[in-house]
Design a protein that fits this description.
Elements (H helix, E strand, L loop, with lengths): L1 H25 L4 H13 L1 H11 L4
Helix pairs in contact: 1-2, 1-3, 2-3
């Protein structure tokens, strides 16, 4: 049962990561800023999402 919950939670994190990357790519910030935020989200999936949500590029 632990694997099912982990799998579902992992899948949800993946979906939110993809959504965040799409939002970052659509922002009007510089390319370097976008690349840095995308790397943060990819390398730190959960923590990166939290940091991006509060500090990331808006718009």
């Amino acid at each position: 049962m632990g694997y099912e919950v982990g799998g579902v939670l992992g899948f949800l994190v993946l979906l939110v990561d993809i959504w965040a990357i799409m939002q970052i790519a659509a922002s009007n910030k510089s390319t370097l800023t976008k690349v840095v935020w995308i790397l943060i989200v990819l390398l730190l999936p959960i923590l990166g999402l939290i940091i991006w949500y509060f500090l990331g590029p808006k718009g």
